[in-house]
Amino acid sequence: MRGFWLVVWLLIPVVALAYHMGPGQRRLEMDRVDDLVRSAAENAEAEKWLEATSLYDEALQILPEDELEQGQRIRLELAKAKMFVKKLPEAHEELKELVDELAASAEPNKELLSESRSALANSQYYITWLMRLEGQPREVWEPEVEGARQTYRLLAESSESSGDAEKCKVYQKDLEATIRLARMDLSELQGLPLPSQ
After folding, report:
1. Going residue by residue through the chain (197 aa), what tens digit of pLDDT does each one get?
2. Alpha-carbon separation of residue 65 from 53, 62, 70, 75, 181 (angstroms)
3. pTM to 2 decimal places
4. Which helix (H) or strand (E) segment is 48 a member of?
5. Cα 39 to the chain's mean position, in Å?
6. Are 176 and 153 contacting, i.e. CB atoms less than 8 angstroms apart?
7. How far apart, in Å, are the Cα atoms of 37 and each of 70, 71, 148, 171?
């Protein structure tokens, strides 16, 4: 019996090393991802957008591929941060891909899909504003503003049906602003300051 316990005692370091080299490495990676995301969120809250984009990007690089939902959440936050560092077109394309990916999945995270749609509608609104200031023809900017209008309407209706009056109110205001942007004369638009997030 003494020999059995001696073997067990000697195997403990071997088992610990095997765990550390196998599943333990994944846990270390996930801990590192969590630290990066937390730091990125703190930087975003402090409006240090460049640092936030860098940290979100680094987190995406080391995130295991099978962590799909967490990857989608990080991609959303990265795209939102990119809108503040003069990468609006890039963020806009990434948000389109993300919304399409989430909408096509069998069981999407509804909250994540809603947040992604909202961010996409915001990017469409700002893209439209910039296109109009650049003097782009209506055929170029109208699909973007129409997409934003439809998305804000969808979000307002779904918020209303779920009983979230506060979000519904915000989305209705965004919807009204989008309609005003589409109807506004270019001379009126040029007299206004650029909208902020």
Report:
1. 666 666 656 656 655 555 555 655 667 777 888 999 999 999 999 999 999 999 999 999 998 888 889 999 999 999 999 999 989 999 999 999 999 999 998 888 889 999 999 999 999 999 999 999 888 999 999 999 999 999 999 999 999 998 889 999 999 999 999 999 998 887 777 776 666 55
2. 20, 9, 10, 13, 40
3. 0.81
4. none
5. 16
6. no
7. 10, 11, 28, 27
Interhelix angle 49-62/68-82, rounded to 10 degrees, is 160
DSSP 193: P
d(CA 170, CA 44): 21
Cα–Cα distance, 151 to 114 (Å, whole number): 10
Task: Tell me how far CA of residue 58 lies from CA of 14, 40, 50, in angstroms.
Answer: 33, 10, 12
What are the boundaries of each domain within the chain? 1-66, 80-197
Q: Residue 125 in contact with residue 174, Cβ under 8 Å?
A: yes
Q: Which helix (H) or strand (E) holds 164?
A: none
What is the DSSP code (8-state) at residue 185?
A: -
